[in-house]
Fold:
Amino acid sequence: MRRTDLVRERAEAERRLETLAADLAAVKQASEGSNADDEHDPEGATIAFEREQLSALVRRARQRVLDLDAALHRLDAGTYARCRTCGSTIPTERLEALPATQTCRDCA
Structure:
């Protein structure tokens, strides 16, 4: 995987994080000041559920950005395609599928 690929992956992850964070902020703002009993809403998912689901997606997206930052640092240090556990080379196919991975398939 080349630096440009990692930078592109990171930019996509950052865009996803921004979109999810905006969605979460909109849900929070929409429910502020509301005294609706969404726990017993017969229409389906509660506002609290949607808020928590978006919060989890934001956390995951934030972690993806951090993982890709770490991958870029490993690339700069010359350790990017090396398994942190056994030291073997991580196959290109694995890096293409999981650009931020730090382990080979056997160690994962």
Q: What stands out?
A: The two ends are 19 Å apart (CA to CA).
